[in-house]
């Protein structure tokens, strides 16, 4: 195995003990987090581990910036800074790509050309919104009153992001929060904090006032809980598991802070017999195995019409066995990288074993591969039924569950029979069916004859226990702003 050469800036970054980013300072902590490389299981970096007192300091820094240079900055200048940050990310896409390939394990080219590049695009989109957030003048019934609205920032926002897309998930939350004029305390996942810390340094370098973006890595039970419950935080934006989302909602009640949640999923993906079958097989394959199955929108429940099941399963197996799996920084860039951690790998493999015990047939993969690293072979389970745990629970790994169905009404009912509602999709050449199913599937995003498409302009979020709030498009500005109604009493002479 030949590894790609590290960018000198990345090497220097990894060799230094990374402190918390609070205001303009790097702050060391009483404890550190050892960041592991999931491709090798070796120590990658040491990062300060924030606790409650560090969250206090970061909130104070954010509050100071909100009442100071950031809060008084014009919307135009705010947009210019956000655009400048987008340019800086794109100019350093190799660095962001390497950091994500190292602590997440995903292939470097995907981390660079997808995650980093699309993060830059996300910031550019919301840079444009900064100067276009406006209130309304409302014609109220009393002629002696003048009424208008102001759209203002929520205040200090606590953002908690997951490990599956370390740079991109930060961009999804941070860009609209900044565009709306808020200041930020960010807690990235403890497994993948590196790109968030680098981004904070970059923001200061290009001119963001200190305290606008504070980054406090730490454990969920420490820094995460302190941030969710902090009375100086006005809003929490969280992406992660449904169970953690429930705890965040409970913690938010102390000051009734605003909360938006993007939580787990168990997306139904349906192939009808009138679809372009080869296109559907290819699209459905990557709907699950894209990002190694470590995605809340993964097409984990593949419903295949019984008349085409054998053809579809054969196509999935062929593709699964042809995939290249290996380290993210391997010079031979692979299709998939490792699972994020030993704990997550054990969880994935336990689901495979339980599925087989319940009667599913493992027709591809199902085992750990390679001598080092948390690698799991791309796995296809056939003969899955709705009651099996592999069909009901989020696995978050490269495990596809294939289920059969016979008619549209049946599969619609089964697809909706889940506590989750983040995404769903179908493959069909029947336009009426496409619109009919899109209207009736209970999920925040519906894909038809495609999978995984997102755009900064299009809203994204869940229904049911997949959360609430929408992360992109104009709806995201609403997540990070609040509307004030202003009434003026007019003198009679003002009405002439």
The number of distinct structural domains comes to 2
Low-confidence stretches: none
**How many strand elements?**
22
Global morphology? globular
Q: What is the rounded distance between the termini?
A: 83 Å
Strand content: 15-25%
Order of strands, widest sheet: 14-17-18-13-12-19-20
The CATH class of the largest domain, by name, is Alpha Beta
Rg computed from alpha carbons, rounded to a whole number of angstroms: 24 Å
Largest sheet: 7 strands, mixed
Name the helicity range.
Answer: 25-40%
CATH architecture of the largest domain: 3-Layer(aba) Sandwich
- CATH superfamily caption of the largest domain: Aldehyde Dehydrogenase, Chain A, domain 1
Structural class: alpha/beta
Count of helix runs: 16
Rounded average pLDDT = 97
Query: What is the fold named in CATH at topology level of the largest domain?
Result: Aldehyde Dehydrogenase, Chain A, domain 1
Task: Please sum up the structure shown.
InterPro entries: Ald_DH/histidinol_DH, Ald_DH_C, Ald_DH_CS_CYS, Ald_DH_CS_GLU, Ald_DH_N, Aldehyde_DH_dom. The chain is built from 16 helices and 22 strands. The chain is an alpha/beta fold.
Description:
This protein has 496 residues and is an alpha/beta fold. Helix content is 39%, strand content 21%. The strands form 6 sheets. Strands 14-17-18-13-12-19-20 form a 7-stranded mixed beta sheet, with helices on both faces. Strands 9-8-7-10-11-21 form a 6-stranded mixed beta sheet, with helices on both faces. It has a 3-stranded antiparallel beta sheet with strand order 5-6-22. α9 (242-251) links the parallel β10 (235-239) and β11 (258-262). α3 (75-91) crosses α7. The mean pLDDT is 97. Residues 31-486 form the Aldehyde dehydrogenase domain. It comes from Devosia litorisediminis.
